[in-house]
Design goal:
By secondary structure, the protein is α/β, with parallel strands linked by helices. Among the domains are: about 1-25 and about 225-400 and about 440-455, ANL, N-terminal domain (Rossmann fold, 3-Layer(aba) Sandwich), CATH 3.40.50.12780; about 455-550, GMP Synthetase, Chain A, domain 3, CATH 3.30.300. Helix content is about 30%, strand content about 25%. It contains 16 helices and 26 strands. The strands form five sheets. It has a nine-stranded mixed sheet. The protein has an eight-stranded mixed sheet with strand order 7-6-5-3-4-8-9-19, sandwiched between helices. A four-stranded antiparallel sheet has the order 17-18-20-21, with no helix packed on it. Helix 8 (about 225-245) packs across helix 9. The longest helix has 19 residues, at about 225-245. The relative contact order is 0.10.
Length: about 550
Amino acid sequence: MGKIWLKNYPAGVPAEIDYRQYGSIGALFEASVEKFRDRPAYHNMGKTISFGELDRLSRAFGAWLQARGIGKGARVALMMPNCLQYPACIFGALRAGCTVVNVNPLYTARELEYQLKDSGAEAIVILENFAHVLQAVIARTPIKHVVVAALGDLLGGKGLLVNFVLRKVKKMVPAYELPGAQRFNAMIAEGERGALHAVDVGHEDVAFLQYTGGTTGVSKGAALVHRNILANLEQAAAWIVPFLGEQPQVIITALPLYHIFSLTANCLIMTKLGGCNILITNPRDIPGFVKELAKHKFTMITGVNTLFNALLNHPDFAKLDFSNLRVSLGGGMAVQQAVAERWKKVTGVTLVEAYGLSETSPAATINPLDLKEYNGAIGLPISSTEISILDDERKEVPLGQAGEVCIRGPQVMAGYWQSPDETAKVMTPDGFFCTGDIGIMDDQGFVRIVDRKKDMILVSGFNVYPNEIENVVAMHPGVLECAAIGVPDENSGEAVKLFVVKRDPSLTEADLRRHCEENLTGYKRPKRIEFRTDLPKTNVGKILRRELRDKA
């Protein structure tokens, strides 16, 4: 298939990009610091840091890592919500030549242990609110160096009050013991007394291990090399700059930076363009979120459908000043037409949908930013990107027919971390990544997602895999059999529904919920539980999730 989508590219967007200007993300960061040193880079909880300040903090962290022998190729885990320490650590680790392992701070001990072991992470920076989880597993992981951050560390005098309130009043910092751990500010002070040494980092060195279930449900780290990220930044910039120009942008960053969408579309793209990220630490606090929005003349906002819907349902959101807003970008899960139409009515700006995956760094398709109305599509393949719709035999289907969405481009991952067999399952011989999503391309090159090939459940933009849920639930001695499926949910798009056959007749729903709370982070936990006497199976005994879905 020819690149039929090119005829619908917005004016000024090139068919191809060149990502070779910089040899690494660290080099791009240092060039941006030189260019934008005095511009605001990040704002959080009333505190703004400039690109120059971010340079100082990241340089100190990088020097601290190197002083401990944590150098090129070593994995450094970051386990924090959106706070000022996060970008300092991302860029510090990358400048030191390390690989960043993004970790969901809400992970249970089981989930954290698996990811630290699988990645081989040697060091971790963790917010103190979650340090007790690390304490439970650290002896069974490769972690040798721990830095404990507090939310107020970089907030100046106000930070002391923030830390006091969280520890004493709200009791949000459970007790923990991590012998040898260093406090974040002490680490920065120590790093500033040393020097960050230049490291020869190239396009094929791994920048991020971005953990995902992929299309098979086994948690794997998508190895994103510097080339992948640099290419995706050029692709995104090629889409954004013709529409917005070179003016400084102020972007609302409510999705966590450990999520690939926010990492690239907010943190890294604004680094390239010299924009400022307004970090929202707790986007679930919608009243607080709306109050924060009122303080800023923001020009861009990214999010998932559930976030946009929650904002629209707060009475004060419509009272905000949207006169500076130019781009509203939805990804991570399908944008619903009703939400998009309400968003346009309230803000005056079209809610534009994009599509990508951890394995594609993430952007693969984006709708034109000057789109007048919601169109139900995930957009056009971006520059230097090919989309092919393939059947089960991996042959291209005609336009307008459904098949698996497959992606080829410089942003496609190098492979799954230390999993060549899993990588081979999702890559075609000619370099297309098979997403597991079923889509249709029309004669204009626009792509629409119509279904999923696999059993993955999409909860508020996060992948949830039935295999993992079922494995955890099956660990309960009262469970004989179980199956997990996704069901529609008005708040999260989909929610997990669990079907259980009891081994112990006294097993209750409360028992299972306690078990899941101990072993699964919040968005993975079943929202609905149904007990059954049996589950539908094939003639060889495989549980038929699809039959359960159809009946549900």
